[in-house]
Specification:
Oligomer: single chain
Radius of gyration: 14 Å
Structural class: alpha/beta
Shape: globular
Number of helices: 4
Order of helices and strands: EHEEEHHH
Helix content: 25-40%
Strand order of the largest sheet: 2-1-3-4
Number of strands: 4
Distance between the termini: 9 Å
Number of domains: 1
Largest sheet: 4 strands, parallel
Strand content: 15-25%
Length: 128
């Protein structure tokens, strides 16, 4: 049986992460004991699932988790962010949501009324 591989969208582009950061992501993934593999990919508009960001939010509409710049080299922070990115249901408090991104861009009165394909990551994980 072949293991399922799901994309892990990263911001900035994975090529901009240090080798230590990539190694910590791989170590943390191993410790989380999840039933699938991950592939680190560049975050782009429309990336499936939640985006894991190092130091700053992605500059486009998405749900993401941001590791503060001062914690971007700390294993505990990377493991916690990875766990949340991969396992928390969509729109769980603690993530930077599409609505929050729109409010920051357009003002506090902005309300998100529709999200296309909100369960895309859950579908990717459950398909065998």
């Amino acid at each position: 049986m072949t293991a399922t591989v799901i994309p892990l969208p990263l911001w900035p582009h994975p090529e901009h992460l240090t080798q230590d950061q990539k190694a910590m992501i791989r170590q943390a993934k191993g410790e989380l004991n999840l039933p699938y593999l991950i592939e680190m990919v560049p975050a782009v508009p429309g990336s499936p699932g939640r985006i894991m960001c190092f130091g700053e939010p992605a500059p486009f509409y998405s749900e993401h988790v941001v590791i503060k710049p001062e914690n971007a080299e700390r294993y505990e922070s990377i493991k916690s962010a990875l766990s949340f990115t991969l396992t928390a249901p969509p729109r769980t408090p603690g993530s930077f949501t599409e609505e929050m991104w729109l409010q920051a861009l357009m003002g506090a009165g902005t309300k998100l009324i529709y999200v296309e394909e909100p369960d895309r990551l859950a579908q990717l994980v459950s398909d065998d």
